[in-house]
Amino acid sequence: MTNRREAVREILSHSEGFRSAQDIYAQMRAAGAKIGLTTVYRALQTLADSGQIDVLRTDEGESVYRACATGTHHHHLVCRRCGRTVEVAGPAVERWAEAVGAEHGFTAITHTVEVFGTCPSCTAAASSS
Amino acid sequence: MTNRREAVREILSHSEGFRSAQDIYAQMRAAGAKIGLTTVYRALQTLADSGQIDVLRTDEGESVYRACATGTHHHHLVCRRCGRTVEVAGPAVERWAEAVGAEHGFTAITHTVEVFGTCPSCTAAASSS
DNA sequence: CGTCAAAATGAAAACGGTTGTCAAAATCAG
DNA sequence: CTGATTTTGACAACCGTTTTCATTTTGACG
């Protein structure tokens, strides 16, 4: 069992950036896997619940998933053109978030940070066009 | 014209936190306004396009809107219990985002930051329970 | 091996928020 | 007033996601 779930995790861990559920489903079908869309969703949900993968929503309302290298807290620097993702640690932001929360008397501070930009190769591609 | 659009903006500017489109629609109908859901969406879109309001997606995939006091770039500190929102400026984060992007050769850096916590009164309420 | 119960699977339907369509209504020239 | 233009809103279409439910797979036990 959980053969499918592991297959999904495999795909994710070999992917560079964020992948959508449908994207993963399409890839698995293209690779000849006999799997249903439902199962992909369920696998992703289970993996997310157990903290093995990250989930976030795109501006278009699609959920995207990513297997992160480390289990520790970190953020992402995402290329807005090609989707290339770099994991970045940011002690400065962590401290800032804590400070800003404390300043207003808030407790149990958490935060989400996403940095977007155009990666070197896409910047080159864009300027040459 | 744009009577409806202004009505929508009115609602938003008198609201404390983020409101969903359907939420706003419901309130306007409850208040007796003759307006369609489509028009609310259109008004919100127009306002967002012209930068007069902020949009973001909840984890549930719903778009939520907010009229911000200032037109300048800032972030939000949101109480996860009561939804109370404080606008916070964060020069430190801006600089950090720029730096982290530049470090990896990314250009045209933008970022989204949301800080969540439990506000003073909710913290008190929780501990007394 | 059978047998049966529990878990996993997937096709299709349901769902919910959002967006498109299109005809009717309001608004604006002239 | 008349005709053109814009705005409007009821409704259908869309799209990603979730639920449903019948079927299949799995695993324990005799």
What can you tell me about this protein's structure?
The structure is a homodimer of 129-residue chains. Chain A has 129 residues and is an alpha+beta fold. Helix content of chain A is 43%, strand content 24%. Chain A is built from 5 helices and 6 strands. A 3-stranded antiparallel beta sheet of chain A has the order 1-3-2. In chain A, helix 1 crosses helix 3 and helix 2 packs across helix 3. The N and C termini of chain A lie far apart (50 Å). Chain B binds a DNA duplex (30 and 30 nucleotides) through helix 3.
Question: What's the SSE blueprint?
Answer:
2 copies of one chain form a homodimer.
Chain A: H1 3-13, E1 19-20, H2 21-30, H3 37-49, E2 54-57, E3 63-66, E4 75-79, E5 85-88, H4 91-103, E6 107-118, H5 120-128
Parallel strand pairs in A: 4-6
Antiparallel strand pairs in A: 1-3, 2-3, 4-5
The structure holds a DNA duplex (30 and 30 nucleotides).
Subunit structure (chains A, B): Homodimer.
Protein name (chains A, B): Fur family transcriptional regulator
Main location (chains A, B): cytoplasm
Number of self-contained structural domains of chain A: 2
CATH topology of the largest domain in chain A: Arc Repressor Mutant, subunit A
3D shape of chain A: globular
Averaged pLDDT of chain A: 84
Low-pLDDT stretches of chain A: none
CATH architecture of the largest domain in chain A: Orthogonal Bundle
User: Biggest protein-protein interface?
Assistant: A-B, 35 and 35 residues
Q: What is the CATH H-level superfamily of the largest domain in chain A?
A: Winged helix-like DNA-binding domain superfamily/Winged helix DNA-binding domain
Sheet with the most strands, sense and barrel status of chain A: 3 strands, antiparallel
| Quantity of strands of chain A, as a count | 6
Which CATH top level class of the largest domain in chain A fits?
Mainly Alpha
Strand line-up of the largest beta sheet of chain A: 1-3-2
- Overall helicity of chain A: 40-55%
Structural class computed from helices and strand pairing of chain A: alpha+beta
